[in-house]
Every structure is written in structure tokens, then in C-alpha cells.
């Protein structure tokens, strides 16, 4: 399932927003912070100056930190 999503995003003309969005969906639905972080990092690699992607990375890392405390 995730592999297929990655392939679809890879062939998009502007994949960075899709990586970002997919990361948020994975975090919200699957609670998989590791996978979400990887996807947002891909988005940031493609668009390093995008403040939304960076803010979402902070959210993912914060979620991972809180999850680690419980």
C-alpha cells in the first residue's frame, strides 16, 4: 500500500506537496511518525524553503516525542 503511494507521488509533476500531504495522512490515520517524517523529509529535499513543510516536520517530531513518553 505505502509502496504504491510512493510510486504514484514519484511520477507527479510537483511531488513535494504530495509527499507532505501523504505524510500527514499517515500520521493521522496510522500514527506512524517514522514514515511520516521520511515523507516530509523528501518534500523538504525538493522544496527546502517551504515553511509549511518545515512546520509539519516539527509537528511530526513533536508527535513522535510525545508518543515516546507514553
What does this structure look like?
By secondary structure, the protein is mainly α. Helices cover about 85% and strands about 0% of the residues. It has helices at about 1-10, 15-30, 35-45, 50-70. α1 (about 1-10) packs antiparallel against α2 (about 15-30) and α2 (about 15-30) runs antiparallel to α3. The relative contact order is 0.15.
What labels describe this entry?
mainly alpha
List the helices and strands and how they pair.
Blueprint lengths: L1 H9 L4 H16 L2 H14 L4 H19 L1
* Shape, principal axes of CA atoms: globular
Q: Uncertain segments of ≥5 residues (pLDDT<50)?
A: none
Profile the largest sheet: none
By DSSP, the count of extended strands is: 0
Specify the structural class. Answer: mainly alpha
Overall residue-averaged pLDDT value: 88
Alpha carbon gyration radius: 12 Å
Helix content range of the residues, please?
over 70%
Q: Which sequence of SSEs, written as H and E, runs from N to C?
A: HHHH
Alpha carbon gap, first and last residue: 28 Å
Strand content: under 5%
Number of helical stretches of at least 4 residues? 4
Would you summarize the structure shown here?
This protein has four helices and no strands.
Amino acid at each position: 500500500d505505502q509502496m504504491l503511494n510512493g510510486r504514484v507521488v514519484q511520477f507527479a509533476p510537483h511531488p513535494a506537496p504530495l509527499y507532505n500531504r501523504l505524510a500527514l495522512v499517515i500520521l493521522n490515520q496510522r500514527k506512524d511518525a517514522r514514515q511520516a517524517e521520511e515523507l516530509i523529509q523528501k518534500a523538504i529535499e525538493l522544496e527546502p524553503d517551504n515553511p509549511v513543510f518545515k512546520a509539519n516536520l516539527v509537528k511530526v517530531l513533536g508527535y513522535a516525542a510525545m508518543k515516546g513518553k507514553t
